[in-house]
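Lab notebook page, bench 4
Experiment: in silico fold of construct C2
Operator: M.H.
Input chain length: 253 residues
Purpose: comparison with the prior construct
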Amino acid sequence: MPPPRRVARTRPKTELAKRELELLALVQDCTAITDEGQLVERFSDYVAVAGFTSIACIRWSGSDQLSADNVLVNTRPVEWLREYLAASFISCDPVLREAVVAVQPFAWSDIGQRRKLAPRERRVLTHAASHDMLDGFAVPIASLGTHMGLVSLAGRSCDLSAPTRASLSAGSLYFYNQLAGHRRRRTLPDLTPRELEVMHWIAAGKSDWQIGQILKLSAKTVNYHVERVKRKLGVASRTQAVVAALSAEPPRR
């Protein structure tokens, strides 16, 4: 009698494929969106599939002060925000503290597993839970400047599986850069035609050497242009530079 056949466990692959398709749809939709409100609405729909009901997106220096200019998006409950500000929770918010030192995205519930929370930090999370934000997922976004970015999602019943975390991380980074691009349209440092040309070729998947062959430049010169754009835009990676530069570029006529 032959041994019983093992049944392949396909669910993780199926779940991963599902999240990848959702991410691709988000990128395609957001690339075509020119209205900031529609962009936020589309991202809200994207994270709602995983059980997240509110978004906070900030550009922050890491200080205890947070002005209205630093808040790019906030869909948290109004009453939560009022109480948060009144209690000065920003000075002891464990999510913000973790975001400053974290290398990778993290769930709010991960913080207590990594270290012991101070009483005031626990109070911040308890306050959030009282407004149906029982857990969350935070995506720190590095910058070369004095500010860092952060997309923090929250909800009552959140999917924090590995495939969903990966999808949310990539989607949050794309959303943040698209949103920041909208905000920078009036204040974006001028990029030269050559810098924009290099960014377009990088977006097309070309290497520095390939771009050099196309533009008749050395790979070293191409890299110089890339690093100059990163400094101008205050971003840490080529991906962020491409998204920021091209999303903020005026439409071609």
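Observations: The longest strand covers residues 148-155. The chain is about 55% helix and 10% strand.
Next step: discuss at group meeting.
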